[in-house]
Specification:
113 residues; mainly alpha; Arc Repressor Mutant, subunit A; two-stranded antiparallel sheet; 2 strands; elongated
Length: 113
């Protein structure tokens, strides 16, 4: 176990590599970009591995919220059924495409725990 209480024996070599870099990066006072440049690391790879390590519970942080795109219903699509799976596990299906009904349905489904 390392000083942060993380068991490293079950990790891949690549995960260990990036976790150690992220721990060292967080311990410095400089920017992530400066750290990446100083260690000849790709900045996009740094951000990718931060997301992966957070997702796997190996690095402290929080995952970004899922962003939604605006739903535009075309007039010719009124008879097509819709299905949305929300991050909270709620599934909403409907065929009525009246904008006021869709908006209230989305707000209700998104508010469920």
């Amino acid at each position: 176990m390392d000083i942060n209480g993380i068991e490293k024996s079950g990790m891949t070599e690549r995960q260990r590599f990036w976790l150690e870099h992220w721990q060292r990066c967080q311990a410095t006072s400089g920017t992530i970009k400066a750290y990446a440049l100083a260690h000849e690391l790709s900045l996009p790879a740094m951000y990718f591995w931060r997301r992966e390590l957070i997702k796997r519970g190996l690095l402290e942080g929080r995952q970004r919220a899922v962003r939604f795109k605006k739903l535009v219903v075309l007039p010719e699509a009124r008879s097509i059924p819709f299905r949305i799976l929300f991050p909270n596990g709620v599934v909403v299906e409907w065929a009525d495409s009246h904008a006021d009904h869709v908006e209230s349905l989305m707000r209700m489904a998104a508010s469920l725990p």
